[in-house]
Design brief:
mainly alpha; 3-stranded parallel β-sheet; 73% helix
Length: 473
């Protein structure tokens, strides 16, 4: 059964699985089959479009990023080989495959009994993040039940973080009743909320670095397409600094600039098609989903690609690429060299962006802290991951002593839980469970207030933006 489930995920992927789930959810909610099929098809078109544009963009930008890394001349022992290696590990271990089935059942049951209002099975593929940490623990301890316990608890933490940020993500990115639950990114919620509160108290929301304000200041040059082109050119220059005397170097610089501008121009159109798929379910949920006489507000988990090309997200991510690389070189005690997954930084900061309501200045600060913490987390766990990767047949690149995935393993919460479970100390493990229970009960009781607070913070940001625009005009 587990092999069949794994083959389904490998063969069809999110662009097929998610539309099928949407189709059946719509039918259950009494949507007419024709309309349900149209919604499902739009979801498939949107996801395929996201994957095509990001898939085409990555090979253009990655050579410039890799060259930027190579030209620094650094020799850190942990090499970032990309998220693909972590998914191979997750789907290649027995304990990982056990959780693939267990996680699906658990997520479905928790939603049906209304323990959570997040329908997580629709993003089943990203369960590999839980499976990764569980596989690492099992290879290290040979304790099956402890490893399953880690994956279950990690999933529960992810769900409660998703509950906190669901409305804000949905509102900011414009996908009705949808949220992002990718475990490797959702754990940035505590840092994102805390830093946004602190930075607002310090007056950082008065520094309005967002696409709208930048456009007001710069006019044509501040439009998303122009900003993408300029920032892409700068990234290309950073990766070709030693090739400025060649046509090839300038060709790559121009290509990266135009490709980034293309993302800015095309992505919103694809996002519009994708978002239209969920209006059907949103409308139906208002009619059919009842809980104690009240409408049950629930959110469908969708792939994190849905937010990648949003203007503030992509611009902030591209600005963070050289910042993170420089910090990796100069930070004492860090042994991690981010490389392949630098292009994935926009995925990693989606929650930070939506909580700051698109303020690039605040997001750069919070995103830098998240990535720096990730460098040290990876430095701590990379030897174990490398051991597991070698055991399941992953080949190390020439010259690499240890490997990692910067995007997936930059996870303060799950990495912390992994290190706690590694101790096999009942006291520490019990404490991590108690913290979850307290957090879950708090969020369950205060969820409406939490959502209202995050929306008020977003309104403060929007209010500061309006004042800035009035001063400019």
């Amino acid at each position: 059964m587990l092999d069949i489930l794994s083959k389904i995920m490998d063969s069809f992927g999110a662009a097929i699985v998610v539309p099928i789930i949407i189709f059946f959810i719509a039918l259950i909610m009494k949507v007419k089959p024709k309309k349900a099929f149209g919604a499902a098809l739009n979801a498939g078109i949107g996801l395929t479009g996201f994957n095509m544009i990001i898939g085409a963009y990555s090979p253009i930008v990655t050579p410039a990023v890799n060259r930027m890394v190579e030209e620094t001349g650094v020799n850190l022992r942990i090499l970032d080989t990309g998220w693909q290696a972590t998914s191979v590990v997750a789907y290649s271990t027995q304990v990982g495959m056990i959780f693939l089935g267990l996680g699906l059942v658990m997520q479905l049951v928790l939603f049906l009994i209304k323990y959570t209002d997040i329908f997580m099975p629709s993003d089943l593929w990203n369960n590999y993040s839980f499976m990764l940490w569980g596989s690492m623990l099992y290879i290290s301890t040979k304790n099956l039940w402890l490893s399953i316990g880690l994956m279950v608890l990690s999933n529960l933490y992810s769900l409660v973080f998703s509950e906190i940020v669901a409305k804000r993500w949905s509102v900011y990115y414009g996908y009705p009743r949808c949220t992002m639950t990718a475990p490797h990114h959702i754990c940035s919620v505590p840092l994102a909320v805390g830093m946004d509160w602190l930075l607002t108290k310090l007056g950082a929301n008065k520094v309005q670095w967002n696409p709208e304000t930048i456009q007001d200041k710069l006019g044509f040059l501040g439009e998303p397409v122009s900003l993408g082109f300029i920032l892409g050119m700068l990234l290309g220059l950073a990766g070709n600094f030693m090739r400025l005397n060649t046509f090839e170097g300038w060709g790559e610089i121009a290509t990266v600039g135009v490709a980034t501008a293309a993302i800015m121009a095309i992505f919103p159109k694809i996002a519009g098609i994708f978002a239209s798929a969920f209006t059907t379910i949103t409308d139906a949920s208002k009619r059919t989903a009842k809980s104690g006489g009240k409408d049950r507000v629930w959110y469908l988990a969708i792939n994190d690609a849905a937010g990648y090309g949003e203007t503030a997200t992509l611009l902030t991510g591209m600005l963070l690429m050289p910042i993170v690389l420089i910090l990796a070189i100069v930070l004492p005690g860090n042994e991690t060299l981010p490389m392949v997954d630098l292009i994935a930084i926009p995925y990693m900061i989606e929650l930070i962006i939506c909580i700051s309501n698109g303020n690039i200045f605040k997001s750069l600060i919070s995103g830098t802290l998240w990535c720096v913490g990730g460098l040290y987390m990876i430095t701590a766990v990379a030897p174990i991951f490398t051991e597991v990767a070698i055991e399941v047949g992953v080949n190390l690149p020439a010259g690499a002593l240890l490997i990692c995935s910067f995007a997936v393993m930059t996870n303060h919460i799950m990495g912390g839980l992994f290190l706690i479970f590694m101790t096999q100390n009942p006291l520490w493990i019990g404490l991590s469970i108690v913290v979850y229970i307290a957090l879950y009960l708090f969020v369950r009781v205060k969820k409406a207030a939490i959502h209202d607070y995050l929306e008020r913070q977003a309104q403060l940001e929007a209010g500061a933006q309006i004042i800035t625009e009035e001063v400019i005009s």
